[in-house]
Amino acid sequence: MADLHQEQRRDGVVGIEPEPNAGRRRRVAPYIVGGVAIVALALFVVLLTADTGRQESAASPLIGNVAPDSKGVLADGSPFELSRRKGSWVVLNFFTHNCVPCIREQPELIEFTKQQRALGNDGAELYTVVRDSTRDQVAEFFAERGGDWPVVYDPKYEFSNDFGVALVPETWIVDPSGVVRARIITEVTAEGLGALINQLRGPSQ
After folding, report:
1. Are residue 90 and residue 188 in the same domain, yes or no?
2. What residues pair up with 72 in beta bridges, in sequence order?
3. Global pTM exceeds 0.90
4. Same structural domain, 94 and 172
5. Which end of the chain has fewer CB atoms within 10 angstroms, the N or the C?
6. Residues 171, 104 share a domain
7. Are residue 163 and residue 94 in the same domain, yes or no?
8. Distance CA 158, CA 73 (A)
């Protein structure tokens, strides 16, 4: 065997003992295993945090078709009907107050609304659609983190069911004709969302 050698003992019996280097190898082995574990953990962290700014779209049978006439309630108690927003580009951002990606993208949505308002009537309208959060929780979230666009409460899960939203954040774009044009299943950025709307507008819009 490569790591063992024979030795003539004093009593005449042939015995087998490890090579002198075998013990050193055993002492080094835990450091190698530990080093591999550290590298694996670092790789996991990199993969977990990488590309958080990249927007990913997803297919849906709604895309290319007229949006559902979903209904909800605004913060002041007045009704909200999606079909009544025809004539404007509408962005629906599905949200929960304690969703970590929702927290991360809030500054991007603030910047997006500033950019769109600067376009006047040509700018898109942003609506936050609330899932599983109370009015007080949402009010506290916006008071702490900023944002002054309309919030739509979805107490009957009508919006969520109509659009098939199971996880948040999720963002949908509806064009002025009321047709669903895009679905984003990751965090959005102001730059990415604005660029996507400009692309969907086409050269003549």
Report:
1. yes
2. 80
3. no
4. yes
5. N
6. yes
7. yes
8. 11
Q: What is the pLDDT of residues 119-141, one digit of tens each?
A: 999 999 999 999 899 999 999 99
Q: Let me know if residue 63 belongs to a domain.
A: no
Give the whole-angstrom CA distance, residue 128 versus residue 159. 11
- Check residue 179 and report its DSSP letter: B
Distances (CA, A) of 5 to 18, 20, 21, 25: 6, 10, 11, 16
Same domain, 79 and 143: yes
* Relative orientation angle of helices 100-117 and 135-145, to the nearest 10 degrees: 60
Range of the domain at 145: 71-201
Q: Are 174 and 186 in contact (CB under 8 A)?
A: no
Q: Which two tokens stand for residue 146?
A: 């900023």
Matching residue, tokens 């670092």: 42
* Number of domains within the chain: 2
CA distance 9 to 31: 34
Residues 18, 94: one domain? no
- Read off the CATH number of the domain in which 189 is found: 3.40.30.10
Alpha helix ranges (H) inside 95-146: 100-117, 135-145
Tokens of 60: 């849906």
Beta bridge partners of 125: 90
58 lies in some domain: no
The string of pLDDT tens digits covering residues 150-171 is: 999 999 999 999 999 989 999 9
Judged by average pLDDT, the poorest of 13-17, 65-69, 80-84, 129-133 is 13-17
CA distances from 87 to 68, 121, 163, 196 (A): 16, 10, 20, 18
Residue 55 within any structural domain of the chain: no
